[in-house]
Amino acid sequence: MMHLSRFATLFLSCFLISFTATHAQKEQQIPYVNGAELIDKGIKAHDDGKYKLALSYYEQIPEGDTNYLTALYESSLSNISDSNFSKAIDIAQKAIALHSKDKRQLLLNIGASLDYMGKSDAAIKMYDSIAVLYPHDNRPYFERAIIKYRAKDYKAAEKFLEQSLLINPLHFRSNFLLGSLYLTEGRLTESMLALSTSLLCTTEIEQARNPISFLSEISTQTDEIAEYYNNRSMDNRDPAFDEIDEIIHAKLALDKGYELQSDLDDNIFRQLQVMMEKLQYDSNDKNFAMQFYVPLYSQIYKNGQFEPFALHLFSDYGIKVVDKVAASRKGKSRIDEVKNVVYPYLNNIASTRILDYEARKKAPEKYHYYSEDNTMAAGVFSNKEEQKFAPGLVQFYQDQSLVAEGNYGANGKKDGPWKYYYVSGNLRLSEEYKDGKIINEATSWSSNGIIARKVKFDSEGEDTETREYSDGGILESLAIRKGKDEYEYTFYYPSGTVRKKSTYLNDKLEDGKMVIYFENGAKQKELSYRNEKLDGPYVSYFENGRIDEKMAYADDKLTGPYLSYFDNGQLAIEANYIDGYAQGTHTEYRYDGSLYYKKSYNKGKADGEATYYNRAGKPYGTVVYKNDRIISTKFTKPDGSVISGGSDNLYVNIYNEYGVLIRKVPIDEKNKVEGKASYFFPFGGMMEVTNFKNDMKDGTSTFYYQNGNTKVSRQYKGDTLDGYYKYFSDYGGLMTEGWMKNDQSQGTWHNYFSNGTLSRDFYLLEGALNGPEKNYEVTGKLDYIVQYDNGLMTGLTQYDTTGKIVQQSNFDKGIGKYRLLHFNGTPGLECDVKYGKLNGAYTIHGGNKDLLEKGVYVNGKNEGEFETYGIAGKLRMKGSYTDGEKDKTWTIYTYDGKPESIYHYEKGNQEGVDSNFNGGNLRSTIEFHNDDMQGKYTIYGDGGKVAAVLYYDLGALIGYSYEGNDGKLTPMQDVKNGAAHIQTTYGNGAKALDWNFDKNVFQGMQKLYYSNGKLAEEVDYDKGYKMGVFNQFNPDGSKYYEATFKNDEKTGANKYYDNKGKLIFVVNFEYGQMHGKAQWTDATGKTKNYWYYYGSLEQ
Fold first, then answer.
1. What keywords appear on the UniProt entry (predicted)?
2. Architecture of 39-134 per CATH?
3. How many other CB atoms sit within 10 Å of the CB of residue 907?
4. Which CA distances in Å does 830 have to 15, 19, 171, 878?
């Protein structure tokens, strides 16, 4: 059911990776699936008759794969061949529900499966519905004929076959089955006509064997054939064919005295000739064979084309004497001549669908086939040679599906509304024409029904305005025609604010200045173009309005001074360029304005000394370059002693101002990085190890936490992320794993809970969610599934703890209501879906209807004010988001309403001075810059007394001090390599703080005291994460908070007290989530019970 914990983190990341952890690293990888290869293997196995093997390939393809629908289609076929008919139907129905482009064939598969299961009535109904959906498809008629034929309902089968052949006269199986049916009824002439015509419809030897075999048996009048003839009923006799049937049965043409009009003497040829010789067309005889076959065969015989016709029928099937004559120059020429009689005749039937020959000759052709793209047009030509349509409706079909329809005017040009469709039936494009010119407005839609493009036209068919939309239907750009071949383009952010404007003349960007804006309307860039190249001043800005970069271009190349700044206005980089290459001194500064290093360039290559400076402005390191190659390095410790000097042909070692190695890079003789490059935290711990080959990342790249545990493991190929990716918690548990291909997430990905169970199973298509995103409870049971189509939500299904569906929602065209329910059916999370993503205000309520969270989504990202609430409706957290990232001030409150922590953010990074409180009293302040601790971390005891001051630089602990007897801070005591046992006292000499650090993180029991000697706080850590007890106390020694942690997650009973030590709230935790009974005591002493289910307040 709906779990608050899952959706309390929704505001942090509703898109890709949820950072929950697993108990132990999983060694087995998720298999990478190449859907296209598996399809090919499956088809080959199917063709080899290995249907179960074929199915095993198809079943490996996940739903998000672009080959998934093809896999379902092929799987349906293989299940039919393997006699798994019910499964074939289920799979076909699933594929149809997912809007497969193979809908027609899948419906036919369902019909065939029903037929094989003995459910002929149901199969007939299925084919009836297919005939309605695809009115120009002969297959539904043919399939119904098969069912009737097997049931020996020959008359019904005959009618269906006749209809099939009127639609598609060149359908081999319909001609063959009709010939077989005629033969069963003893109708020899009609059978020979249909069987011979079937040979005109195939070039496959395997197909041709049966009709040739039947023709041979008819020619020699085998016992079985003779029996059919002798037992024929009066209903199956036609005076027009009786005499010919008798001649064929009597085998008169087999007599050597019968003159054969061919040098090839064969029984089939003889019987075929005598049949064609005796055929007489009778316009009054409405027999199908008379109207369908006889006009063609009698005409061929009258034309003296019997032999080339016979050669055409039987050539290319391995009959050597026939193939030899047919392959001769004369044979080819004569066969081509007869083809010019045969196929126009049959095509005329397909084009008119009129059986009566005399009526057909006069009828206009309504159906026109184009074999090159398997398209058919339904409409009448006013001029067949020019293929100009007469006034009226014309419809175009491709692969039997309607793809376009509209009217043509008197001049043979499009006129009025025109509509174009996807194979699924969804509208693709809507246009309007007048005398062949497009007018008014044309609108395009994506296959999911979401708008993609709108174009306005004037009366001359010239476009005047074009609107382009995102996959979700959000306006992305607007192009307005200002004059002949001149267009003004405006590009928008998803919120609708302008990103940039530009003008194009004759498809070229107009010279001049361009301004690009942030989403909040502030300037982002000012630049100029000339001849579609950057030329002139170029200035970029931070969102706060300060300059980010300042430079100039000439003919698309950097030239002159280059200046880069920090967002506080301090200069970051100062350099110079000539003709696109760095030239002269390149200088970099720190955020506080102090000089970091200087480097010399000559024509884009480092040349000379690069000097590193400490914050006091004194040099502590030099690297000597010559023609971009490092010649030597020299670094010194703060005391002046040399720690690196001379040249090292294997590695280049770079140190920071504290004498700590921060970079160790292998360089080969060509000055290229080759081998394992190591990068270190400022305190000296390993941060990254990446393998290089020929100056490019290639192989394994591993990132580490400060405590030494692996953070990320990923693979590169030629500087591109390509291979398996794993993300771990700081205590070593696997959090996320999946595949990267060409720098993008691709394939199946998994997230895990801290107990090792799967929390999320999803598929990424080039980084976008595609297919089902399966979300699980910490118990391992399926909770809910969100369906995606290339990043857009299309549906939601929620399950109860027994696996039954609780509710389903479809987000048709990316619109709907996203809602998750509690056990008692009350809504938990509620938010609108628009543009295929969460949009608008959302709320999360408990099962008791208490408000727990509220905020706003804009295109799937949190935006604006955000609040969460605890027991009794008390505010627990308040903050704001900008573009999905925490921004500005965030405040966390205790359960009794006092501030607990105040954080400051800029674009998701902690920035500024954060504060923490205990019982409303200040406990600590921490200075942050760019998400790193930078500056002072001041810890307070009671009454605002300073217990200690820790000093950080780029996140590394570099020293500490505390108040002396004089009330002033003692001189900073250095901390090296992130390891220290810090013990401090208050000004009165009382113990203040006893903390341990190893590898720059907390290690062991950390204790803080009040100035009266009483314990204020004790927290147990292991490698930087909480592991064990966490107790906080009031100055009088009474409890304020008590909890137990495991792997940085709360576990067991958590108890919250007021400033006087009175218990106000107790709740149980499992895997970091509130679970089980909770009890709240208000100020009057009244208690109230609550119940949580893995983070979700249920009652």
1. Signal
2. Alpha Horseshoe (1.25)
3. 15
4. 17, 23, 55, 19
pLDDT of residue 28: 79
Q: With contact defined as beta carbons under 8 Å apart, do 585 and 597 qualify?
A: no
Residue 649 is predicted with a pLDDT of 58
Contact 287, 178 (CB under 8 A): no
Residue 994 C-beta-side C-alpha neighbours within 13 Å: 14
- Between the alpha carbon of residue 176 and those of residues 40, 382, 1041, the distances in Å are 31, 36, 87
The total number of residues shown for the chain amounts to 1099
497 Cβ contact partners less than 8 Å away, ≥ 6 residues apart:
517, 519, 520, 521
CA proximity to 37, closest of 16, 15, 66:
66
Two tokens, residue 732: 């070593």
Helix (H) or strand (E) holding 222: none
Specify the pLDDT at position 27: 62
User: Reduced to 3 states, what is the DSSP secondary structure of residue 439?
Assistant: coil
Question: What beta strand segments (E) does 486-618 contain?
Answer: 486-492, 498-505, 508-509, 512-517, 523-530, 533-534, 536-541, 547-554, 557-558, 560-565, 571-578, 581-582, 584-589, 595-602, 605-613
Task: Output the six-digit token pair for 1006.
Answer: 């950390």
> What six digits make up the tokens of 358?
């005399």
Pick the CATH number of 814-910 from 2.60.40.1120, 3.90.1150.10, 3.30.420.10, 3.90.930.1: 3.90.930.1
Please name the helix (run of DSSP H) or strand (run of DSSP E) that holds residue 281, with its range, or none.
none
Beta bridge partners of 950: 937, 960
Report the 10 Å Cβ neighbour count for 989.
9
In a 10 Å sphere around its CB, with 0-12 CB exposed, 13-18 middle and 19+ buried, how is residue 399 labelled? middle
Check if the beta carbon of residue 916 is closer than 8 Å to that of residue 1056: no
Cα–Cα distance list, 684 to 641, 728, 957, 1000, 1059 (Å)? 18, 21, 11, 9, 42
pLDDT score, position 263: 85
Q: Dihedral, CA atoms, 287, 288, 294, 297, nearest 10 degrees?
A: -160
Phi, then psi, of 34 in degrees rounded to 5 = -100, 95
Residue type, 458: D
By the 8 A CB rule, do 251 and 194 touch? no
Structure tokens given for 160: 């269906």
Alpha carbons 845 and 857: distance in angstroms, whole number? 17
pLDDT at res. 1001: 95
Strand 437-438 and strand 427-434: the pairing is antiparallel
pLDDT tens column, 164-175: 999 999 999 999
* Range 593-600, long-range pairs (CB < 8 A, 24+ positions): 599/625, 600/625
Q: What is the pLDDT of residue 1019?
A: 96
Residues of the chain with pLDDT under 70: 1-27, 645-649
What's the DSSP call for residue 189?
H
What does DSSP say about strands 388-389 and 661-666: parallel, antiparallel, or unpaired?
unpaired
The pLDDT assigned to 431 comes to: 98
Check if the beta carbon of residue 514 is closer than 8 Å to that of residue 535. no
